[in-house]
Protein: Alpha/beta fold hydrolase
Organism: Pelomonas nitida
Amino acid sequence: MQDPRPHRFAPALAGLLLTLGLAGCGGGGSDDSGSTTSATSTSSGDTTAAAVDRLQAITLPGYPHAINVYRTAGAQRAIVLLHGGGGDLHAVAYQVGLNSSAAYTTLNTINWAWLDANKVTLVIPQGQHIPSNPGATTWSNYAMNSGQDDKGFLQALAAKVRSDYGLADITLMGHSMGGAMTNRLWCESNGSFNRFVSLAGPLSSTVGQAVTPCSPGSAPAPYMGIIGDSDSVMQTSGAWEAVTWTVNPAVVASSIEAWLNNVVIGEFHQQQARTALTCHGTLGSNDFTTSGNVDTWSTCSGRLVLKRVRGADHAVASLDAQMGSASNLDVMNAVMAFAAAN
């Protein structure tokens, strides 16, 4: 299949969704000439399966978030995809290889071939921003503040996908600050989604404190984390097993008013905690298998997976490049393999 991202960001930091104010990754902006959709929906029910692939623009009552729905004919599951800090709903789809434009979305820019083959409807909401930081489109995940009840919004969105589209199987997936939000939901609303996937988006260190415990319940949903060992935003180089990582100060400085806490829990350390919570198991430093540049830890009968991508920086493009196949869809293919197994 032809790579739908002919102009992917080459340098890792150039493709950074977390870095606020990057061209093509800001909080607003679509090209009006290419912004038309095939259908527009409100919150009313629509349980009829899509007969053809179509793009819908929807909203939820009580929430300001715009939402793009890539409604795939014959879909059997959905993925809710969250962009990183400073990103938007067009750019994150571009980053993962499912939209050929980082600036707008039309029927013709969507990678329907992959969605049809995997029977996936893709749901992409737009993060919000506090009034004083209009460029800091993000999620309220304890690391950053969007000014919105994003937990309530995502719970309502999952309910809508199930009721209106008849899709009971929903994965919540996020990159960077979207991954941090995904982590928050794994801890605080574990039953809202069937599984959780975070790309370079560790849990805020605020979680786990007395007022914000990580309480996923007695049978937590599956979780997969994918992150590079050379992530210059999370500063993972040489610190893989550290208890905490500190988000690069240069990234924080551009949106300082939106930041609540720039310390995150190291993904490997948190996976050890997830393993204990999920199946009372343990996770050892050397308990991984290796394929190419990817080291994979798998615990709790495969319900918890952590992939360390050697040589990868923060951007999804860098993760894809270092994961190694010619498809440039390695991340999405890994997500589908995880979903099929769990």
